[in-house]
Amino acid sequence: MQVFRLQWPELDAHVHVKAAEENPQVFDWFCTNLPTRSLQTHTVVAGYCLTSMSVPVRNPFPWTLDSLYQEDLVVLRPGRALLNMTIGNVVNLGFKWAEMTENMSYAVWSEVVPDDLPVLRKVGAAVWANMMSAEKRLIHVEFVAA
Question: What are the pLDDT digits (tens) for 107-135?
Fold first, then answer.
């Protein structure tokens, strides 16, 4: 099983990510773009989802989002990853870590391995607390080969 590592240096945490059954070609494509990194952010009103906006990629995204399998955020299992926008050589990604309330569908392409879900929840809670705090600090997320 091919995996990559999602890591947060400022939080001293990491998880392993594997391909989802749906859209495995997107996982394979993303792995050709490793390593890459961006700021870790969080959805604000739709529920609990770590988001990474404008993640740099070397290889442009070769599909249209409407050609990929999509899943509703409300029923998406925690740990599953979504891809919701591509612009040139950047992509926007999300990793659901708890309940979400927005009935929107996005392309699913990977998921955190089950043993690492407690770490994902811990990171999600820390990033959420950071987003809600008066003194925000920068938290980076790195996507690297495992």
Answer: 999 999 999 999 999 999 999 999 999 99
> What stretches of the chain show up as alpha helix (H) in DSSP?
24-31, 117-132
Residue type, 53: M
Q: Is 71 helix (H, G, I), strand (E, B) or coil?
A: strand
pLDDT category, 85, cuts 50, 70, 90? confident
Q: Which CATH class is domain 3-145?
A: mainly beta
**For the chain, which residues make up each domain, given as ranges?**
3-145
Environment class of residue 31 by beta-carbon count within 10 Å: exposed (0-12), middle (13-18) or buried (19+)? Answer: middle
Instruction: Give the separation between CA 85 and CA 137, rounded to whole angstroms.
Output: 25
